[in-house]
Amino acid sequence: MLAHQLTEGLIRVLERPDLRVIAGTRRISLSPDLPEPFRVTDRGDVLLGSACMGNGAHSAFYLRHALELAHLLDIAPHQPVMAALCAARTAALFHGLDVTCDTVAEPGVAMTAAPTALPAWIDIMAADHLPAPEILRDVWLAIAPCQPAPAERPDIDAVHARLDALWPWTGPTETLMAMGGDARLSIDPTTGLNHYGCSHRPRPWAVTFASSTASSLSERGFAGAEAARLRLIAAALSDPQADVPATLTTEIHDGIARHFGLRGDEGIILAPSGTDCELYALALAALAPGGRAVSNILIAPEETGSGVPLAARGCHFANDTALGHMVPKGHLIAGFPDDTQVIDLPMRDARGQQIPLAQVDADCLRVARSELARGRHILLHRLDLSKTGLLAPQMETLDTLMATAPAGQVDVVVDACQTRLDPARVRDYLDRGWMVMVTGSKFFTGPPFCGAVLLPAPVMARLSGRLPAGLAQYTHQAAWPVGQARTVLPAGHNIGLLLRWHAAMAEMAALADVPRATVTQRLRTFLSAARDAITHNRDLCLLPPYAPRRPPLADAWDDAATILSFFVRAHDAGDTFRPLALALARKLYAWLNTDLSTVIPARDADERRLAALLCHVGQPVPLAHPALDGELAGALRISAGARLVSGEPSHDGMDSRRRMERETRDVRRVVDKISLILRHWPTIAACDPHPTYMPHHLEQG
User: Fold this and answer.
1) Overall pTM > 0.90
2) Which pLDDT score, from 0 to 100, does residue 7 have?
3) Which residues, 6 or more positions from 307, have their beta carbon under 8 angstroms from its beta carbon?
4) Cα dihedral sign, 653-198-209-301
């Protein structure tokens, strides 16, 4: 390759959104005669050698290594060896996420790789366990030329001792954010994406309307998590006694409290997921005065998290917990009573049609009063909102129940895990003494697996009791408000959860800066265009949008249906409308998020660009449909999220009008790609391609 082509390739690496965020304003320049792949100067500048000018994957690895080393030397100039080894580990884990490279040598071979080959220490430093001191010494000797020489001879044994505690949470932000959840956060090496089809790295080339399920990070969210990670590593290098995780936790509590208007006698529990929130709400209901058995009334559990019905009984809802414990799914968690009853109240009938709200409300009152008559404590859910935007029971029904129930015998928990509601609504719920479950990962478009339970003052008073011992497998003391109840939990912190929440809080802050009237106007503009795009496409059938029935609120944006659910015509349905069955809808969902330009024989350049477009929408919701004779259909979802309102750094340079025009154009492109897939269904099905982090032309760039 010619030199100018190599430089263009490096420029493409420098323009990667994740590396651009990490680089910030740091000065980076080329030094082709440099014998090392890179060097960090005394001033903190980064010089890139000839090894960074060839293979794009090599360039990304060395640049990430150089940037991390420069940051850590800034942070801890008196700990150059610690900084070097931590930077090497971060680079090694980054490489594992970034690409699979055939040139990585096996552990134990000599540390003298050719300039064009990647270093042999990558596997060593990416290992789960800290290498022995003599191996660390070899790694240090290999990377030492890339930085200013230390003033004193390094004591590797002392460095090894300090690294031991730091090792598990030294790494790139995108690796650490996949910790402290469950297997659904893990990145699939064949796609570069997690179970939800999204990434912990920014993915600005993808069209994303998936906030009803999960979103890839924006550059803003990534920067928020990256800043928190650097503070963690800075403290570990410069002041081992500093409890930065506790500080980060306090900042999250303060940020959530500020956004929703919590008061000093109210509290917050941080949770890895909305399902964990359900578990915590049940534990707190069981601590209500009177010691009664709990009847847990779920509204439309089929439209909440898949593990919620198990968690609602106090059972393990997966095979592993957020803290990494393997547990028997479906078995009762230690300390939870075995007499909890779960009562499901559906919101759709056997044909998939929405049950009238009046009937749902009547069912709620009937069941709750029956359970109260049996002397049981009620934990009643208000679903605000479901996966398809349903809300129930209505406030009047809950007010009637609370006015007639024995004092202290009913808890209401608001499942607001979609968090598609104005903060003033949350404040009203708390004033009524109700718990509220929220997440930063749905409407706010933060990374998946960051939830919280907001506690009103009467529930906070229960923290003088004792939580079930089995919760020690799920959560740390620091995630809970101070009180006797949390003493059964282990000390420590869920680092992944903290970073995910810091990413989400960056999005929350951006949304809070937008005037409420502007929020309303932008959402309505987009939703109108999205409804038009769906209804004017013969391949799609829009489910009746459900506008939440809420009390009047000035400039309220949350009275609109921000989740648009629709069925897709089966590719072989002919002129009749028979929707895709659930399994096929899941195929379509994945193919939308896939570059199909090498699979579909495009007629022209426009169709080729459409085939290559990565489109991430909400996962299919299983719903009954009369045309499928008992088989479940899959309803896809296009959702408006906070980023649609506040924008994101990749939109810099666009005024709000142009940006909203782009968003409405993008939603039409999503709909057009669905029809394109249907026209070429057999061809695509024969290949069954996988989603990708980026389109092919960027991978090959």
Assistant:
1) yes
2) 65
3) 275, 317, 318
4) negative
